[in-house]
Specification:
alpha+beta, Peptide Deformylase, 5-stranded antiparallel beta sheet, 3-stranded antiparallel beta sheet, 3 helices, 8 strands, globular, binds nickel (II) ion
Length: 172
């Protein structure tokens, strides 16, 4: 288990399309997932995609706990999602502020599908099939974008809606 270095925006590895995982339930995959959780926890992230630590494979993790300090944040179950497929449900979109461990210090207002179904596998090869909305749906879309080489600033409709956290939210 180890905290790995997170690549920052500008690193060409972040813009690659990641490869499908061929094998589940291997010691190497368990070790990678464990490093991803250590890294996400160390950096206080809500999610992490394998390409962010330089591994170009279709693996994301996410986890958001209920937090009394931020009652507006909806909890998201701790999940390992491999080879994901996302299918939007309806065409309703929703704007929300996002941050990314590869874009430290910044936040941007991004439009995402409000509701979607996602399928994939956990690290043991067990199928996952969920229909989610709101913040959970946003987190999944953000993380899975990393697998296609997309960082959230590439989805901004207005570049002025990208800024430094302490300038955008001075009250925090
Ligand atoms: Ni990110």
């Amino acid at each position: 288990m180890a905290v790995r270095r997170v690549l920052k925006m500008g690193d060409p590895l972040l813009y690659r399309k990641a490869d499908l995982m061929q094998e589940f339930n291997t010691p190497a995959l368990d070790a990678l997932v464990s490093d991803m959780f250590d890294t996400m926890a160390a950096m206080n992230g809500a999610g992490l995609a394998a390409p962010q630590i330089g591994v170009s494979q279709r693996i994301v993790i996410f986890s958001v706990e209920a937090n009394a300090r931020y009652p507006d944040v909806e909890p998201v179950p701790t999940t390992v999602l491999i080879n994901p497929t996302l299918t939007p449900i309806g065409d309703e979109m929703e704007e929300g502020w996002e941050g990314c461990l590869s874009v430290p210090g910044l936040r941007g207002l991004v439009n995402r599908y409000q509701k979607l179904r996602y399928t994939g596998f956990d690290q043991h090869g067990k199928p996952i099939d969920r229909t989610v909305s709101g913040f959970h749906a946003r987190v999944v879309q953000h993380e899975c974008d990393h697998l296609d080489g997309i960082l959230y600033p590439m989805r901004l409709s207005d570049i002025r809606m990208l800024g430094f956290e302490d300038a955008l939210f001075p009250e925090l």
